[in-house]
Amino acid sequence: MSKQSIFGRMSQLMRANVNAMLDRAEDPEKMLDQMVRDFTNNIREAEEAVAQTIGNLRMMEDDYKEDLDTAREWGQKALAASRKSDDFGKDGDEQSAAKFDNLAKVAIQRQIDSENSAKAVEPTIQSQRETVEQLRSGLEQMKTKRQQLISKRDELVARSKAAQAQSQVHDAVKSIDIMDPTSELGRFEEKIRRDEAMVRGQNELAASSLDSQFEQLEDLGEQAEVEARLAALRSGGSSEPRSLEAGGDESAVDESDFAALEAEKDKA
After folding, report:
1. Structural contact between residues 260 and 246, judged by C-beta atoms closer than 8 angstroms
2. pLDDT at residue 177, as a whole number
3. How far is CA 103 from the centre of its chain?
4. How many other CB atoms are found less than 10 A from the CB of residue 96?
5. What's the pLDDT at 261?
6. H helix intervals, 91-183
7. Do the beta carbons of residue 116 and residue 146 sit within 8 Å?
8. SS3 for 48?
């Protein structure tokens, strides 16, 4: 039971996959064109069947007419033989009169056979006529349906193409939606923003490095000024600023050194 259930599910899955593949592969225009071709072929086959039925009817009608003509001819022959018999009877020729009486009877019998043959085929002919009329009516309906199918095919193909065009336009617009962060334009904009941020960071880093270099230059200038004024004091000169050459290393000086200097001066 379980094995049958598995096989049944596998079969159903395969049918579902095949149907899905067929649905994706279906082209409405091609499918509608095939429907028109199939309908046209059906009409052609129906026309052949109707033509054959009409041909059979015409043959039966010809046979019927031939039987009626034959019956009429035998009737005329029977009438001629009967008159001939009467003529011989009036002349007293009983033997000839009897002979033509027999000929009249044979003609009448063949007339009856032809009439019976014609009557036997009458129902068949009537039935065939009704069948032909039904087939003709059905054939005309098929032709009308085919014309409607062609008109509907043109409408559906036009609608299908319009839907495809709208879908393509929608996809194209969606692919360049500037408000969509996942679009290509959004991705390019994000990359450019990162590049601009990188440039700003580099500029800030370069400016910071340049300020630091200028600060170092200013520190060196101050050290040179201090050394120059100290040298001037030692030589008994003034500590006013003047042009000096930078030289020597700066000794570390803090507030405690100034306090010691004040104490030495008071002691003296």
Report:
1. no
2. 55
3. 84
4. 15
5. 60
6. 94-175
7. no
8. helix
For the chain, which residues score pLDDT lower than 70?
1-4, 6-26, 172-186, 208-221, 236-268
* Rounded distance between C-alpha atoms, residue 208 and residue 228, angstroms: 31
Question: Could you give the angle at the alpha carbon of 142 between the alpha carbons of 138 and 144, nearest 5°?
Answer: 115
In whole angstroms, what separates CA 239 from the centre of its chain?
98
Continuous segment of H or E residues that includes residue 259:
helix 255-267
Its pTM stands at 0.48
Tokens for 1? 């039971």
- d(C-alpha 161, C-alpha 32), whole Å: 13
User: Residue 16: its pLDDT value, please?
Assistant: 64
* Amino acid 148: pLDDT: 85
Measured from the Cβ of residue 60, the count of other Cβ atoms closer than 10 Å reads 17
In sequence order, which residues have a C-beta less than 8 Å from that of residue 228 and are 6 or more positions away?
241, 242, 244, 245
Structure tokens at 260: 């010691």
Residue identified by tokens 């033989």 is 81
Contact 104, 85 (CB under 8 A): yes
pLDDT, tens only, 105-139: 999 999 999 999 999 999 999 999 999 999 999 88
Rounded Cα gap, residues 224 and 247, in angstroms: 6
Cα→Cα distances 107→90, 94, 110, 175, 255, Å? 22, 20, 5, 98, 170
Q: What size, in residues, is the chain?
A: 268
